[in-house]
Request: fold
Amino acid sequence: MARKIKVADLLCGAGGSSAGAKRALEEMGLEMELVCVNHWPTAIDTHQRNFPEARHYIQDIATVRPHILVPEGYLDLLMASPTCTHHSVARGGKPTSDQQRSDPWHIVTWLTELRVKRIIIENVWEFCGWGPVNMKTGRPIPSRKGEYFHAWTETLRRLGFELEWRRLNAADYGDATTRQRFILMGRSDGRKIHWPMPTHRKRDEVNADLFSAAEPWRPAREIIDWSIKGRSILNRKKPLAPKTLARVLAGAFKFGWPKPFIDKLMEEIERSLRYHINWAFEARNAKASKSKRRQRRALAKDLIRRLRHFRIAPAEYAKGGRAAEPMVITLRRNGNGTSISSPIPTVAANGQHVGLAEPVIVNMKGQSTATSSREPLPTQTSHAAHLYAAEPIILSQHNSGSAREVSDPLPTITTGGAANEARPGCARPMLVEPFVLSQASGGSPRAVSDPIPTPTTGGNGAAHALISPYYGSGSGETCNHVDEVLPTITSKGRFGMVVPVTNSNGGATARNIDVDPVPTMTTAKGGEFAFIAAQFGEREGQAPRVHDIDQPTPTIAATGHINLVESGPEYDILFRMLEPHELAAAMGFNTEEATYEFAGTKTEKIKQIGNAVSVAKMKACVGAIMADAVPKLKSRPDAEFLEAAE
Reply:
């Protein structure tokens, strides 16, 4: 019979820590006896669906009595994820209070009322700077940065714990997101603390090391549902926000989209600027408070400045690309494009800050259809250009989110919410998906995994899908290729997928780049590639960033500001947010064997994912700290010795 390990998961949320711990303990031949506490009924509902054998308590951690919830009086492992939103940079400069940042102190009660052998605490890295807040401004006092953190850790040491903490990247342990988090591990039994060895590394590092046993970061491409198509980014009744379009444009430059797509984006940016300037002036004259009018006046000035700069320096935007590749775009802060071969950026709790843009090859003649860029080219003719390639990317919608490749992990997922596609600042990872389009009559898009149609002598190019983050100011928060990991996933879903497409006059239709063959291809102009883009958050003077969908997604925050940008009919760009099941896969919840079941609305699901702990990383941490709990096999005496004894 397997030995039972008593585990408590405080502020358990949807169960990322619990899932990681269960997988680790089962691999070691141990059985987990779990106690969970969370104040949100929806999160507890999700947890109960996936861990029906656990004891669940819907209660504020500040009011629970540990000795009542754990009558046994001891724990082998205590895991806790104190509220991080009041420490995270993803919240921007919003005011907070000491009371809102006090959750870590409630963990001390569990350590005094129970005998706890091991602890694992997860939070954002900025938690190390936890200090007092100015009562007037509601912002941390810079001169007292880290004061409360050091007092808290000293309290844990006085309770008998040896402590160590590090910053760990989820992509290094097999999750498809570059979510970086503070991890503290402690023991009260005097034994040494062991840390998990990374199992994955950046693709370039793995390729450069012939003797490396590590695998490449999981790409965002693995978690993207290519059957879902985006909506055209152009000529919407209410244009996308100028910053969102600027991120897509940055991703298009980064991944070399052909000039026709650049021209379309320039036209749409100018239209968006004019629309939002008119809105700002109309709103300024409407009935509103003095502060609201001041904000709208400042917005109008900023938009006019951007429009003036856009007119003065058109050459900066008018460069044509050779081939458009897919990318991931983070739609927050200084988001830009990154490769889809990398993980997605960090997924925040709103889950809406990563977008994907994807490339395909399309035959623009006859009744040809789009095909995957990984398949052979179709028959080439001596006609004008009729083939285009587009590659997927992921867009993140917060911070400095940029497009990424789908082969990279998703960015950090935040806790925002998903019901805001109607407004320019929506925030969930978006996928921009690539496919192949033919320029000939009737040519339709095909998956890049299918053969290319018959090509002619017109010349060709390619456009890649990108993941666009809607947030981010740190390095790497740019549009990603779909072969990159996603950035950090937040709770507002700020990732968008951007996929550029072309279409012929013959009614060409788009196809999935990973499934359908490429139509007959000519040597025409370039095609389109998807990428991921961010939705918000560039600081003054910082260029938008996008992500390749061959890279992980950016960090997924609670707002999920990641957008997907992809191509559509003729010279079009398709754009959509990454869906909850895609974000959940990036965070390690969904596996090939089982799909994690989430309760609540779409917005609530994204919030749970963005607030969650990445599963593979927690599995590695639990496996390291619990390694000494594995029962030692008792060696049997030799058969000869037993015979002699008889």
Observations:
- The chain has a mean pLDDT of 75.
